[in-house]
Amino acid sequence: MGEKVLLLLLLVSWSLMVVDGKKNQGREEVKLISDQSNGRPPMFILNKFKKVVKSEGGEVKVVSGYKWKGDINPMHIGFITMEPNTLFIPQYLDANLILFVQTGEVKVGWIHKDEYLVEERMKMGDVNVIPAGSAFYFVNVGNDDEKLSIICSIDASGTSEWNSYQSFFIGGGRNPTSVIAGFGVMTLRAAFNVTMDELSFLMKQKNGPIIYMTNTTEEQHLLPSMIKLKLKLQQQLSDNGKEMHEDDDQYKESYKTWSWRKLLSSLIGKKKRKGGRVHSPESFNLYDTEPGFCNDYGTSVSIDKHQYSPLKISGIGVYYVNLTAGSMMAPHFNPTATEYGVVLKGSGIIQVVFPNGTNAMTARVRAGDVFWVPRYFSFCQIASMDGSFEFFGFTTSARENRPQFLVGESSVLKSMMGPELAAAFGVAEEWLERVVEAQSQSVILPPLHVEGKN
Questions:
Q1: Coil, helix or strand for 423?
Q2: Are residues 266 and 133 in the same domain?
Q3: Which of 21, 83, 293, 410 is least enclosed, having the fewest CB within 10 Å?
Q4: Phi/psi at 245 (5° precision)
């Protein structure tokens, strides 16, 4: 009887161990995927998006970063989406913008050196900078069925509050309200040198900050001089007992050449096209440039103020990484900047380590996710086995970053190899050297199975 009781107790104990093991295995799997085993979202994933613009023609969402110790510039990341043939109306910000065209093609017009309006067509992969206080507009000039997607950094370090920034719309009327509308009527009449009737035509736009170019009415596209012509025609037709209609051929011919570009020029500065006396910086294409690092397992491009001088304006750097299936950006840390990343394609895992050597986050990310890593924190990115993993991002310094890698052919461990390092790990120097040199690749490492290990 005693032996049967003992056997029963052993079976119960073994069953409890199996159940407990499965529970723990489940917890570990949840932690691997989302770091939510403790009920909290992943610490270094930014997921609180705020919709700051919503129009029929598109929208703008912004996710805000953190002002980390040692950072001069806080970081906000904006996502601009525009339908085909739409305009993001003229405005300026109290923050620097770095633009990256994710998909589509855009015509960007902006005031260069506080005087001249210049335009440039930007394609997928292009980067450009619009300084704070420089008026600008965007037009989706891609294919008729192609949406435009722009990712931008918003550097609010020059604002009164680091975690806020403000748009000042120049174009607009009722929605959004133009900053011009805030002046008194007499002030505006004197400034424009027009009548009250002429002035009323300028403030009718009510379709939001992102509008369809083809849906704007002729009255919303009138220069004061053109309005005078319309009023004159109205008077002449009225004297003849006729009524003037909006679709009158002479009326339409008078106004069809109007554009927002002319409005911005007339309000702010004189237009000078590229190729003339005005030379504004060209866009920098991340996809066409020579990678800073490339091997069979991926590529990495990092742009600082030396490669692209406009980055000096905001003091922010730009990077792009493409990892093949299963490959890894080796564990490393950034000595000069906090890093923000946006997943462009595929999926992967981001691992971040606390200074005390414990795991801060192991999170699975996919296209559209935003992550950040504080300066000096060690981290790595690992591509999923089912495809490539592409991400793009910003760093809070435009100086050369020079990431320090902890593993691989060009690692800190290999550079510091010696009796001191072996003593620090409590192992023989020969054994440590064999382990450190087992990885023959650097920076971007192959999947584990490529090396024939298990």
A1: helix
A2: yes
A3: 21
A4: -105, 155
The SS3 call for residue 155 is strand
Q: Domains in the chain: how many in total?
A: 2
Strand partners, 217: none
Entry pTM: 0.78
Q: Tell me, yes or no, whether 391 and 350 share the same domain.
A: yes
Q: Measured between alpha carbons, how far is 269 from 257 in angstroms, rounded to an integer?
A: 19
**pLDDT tens across 47-72, in order?**
999 999 999 999 999 999 887 776 66
What CA–CA distance (Å, rounded) separates 421 from 427? 9
Both 305 and 402 in one domain: the answer is yes
**One domain for residues 169 and 219:** yes
Flag whether 59 is in a domain.
yes
Q: Is 150 within 8 Å of 80 (Cβ atoms)?
A: yes
Say which amino acid occupies 131: P
Residue-range definition of the domain harbouring residue 404? 286-451
266-279 pLDDT per residue, tens: 555 545 544 444 56
* CA atoms lying within 13 Å on the CB side of residue 268: 30
Give the chain's largest Cα–Cα span. 121
CA pair distance 65, 77, nearest whole angstrom? 8
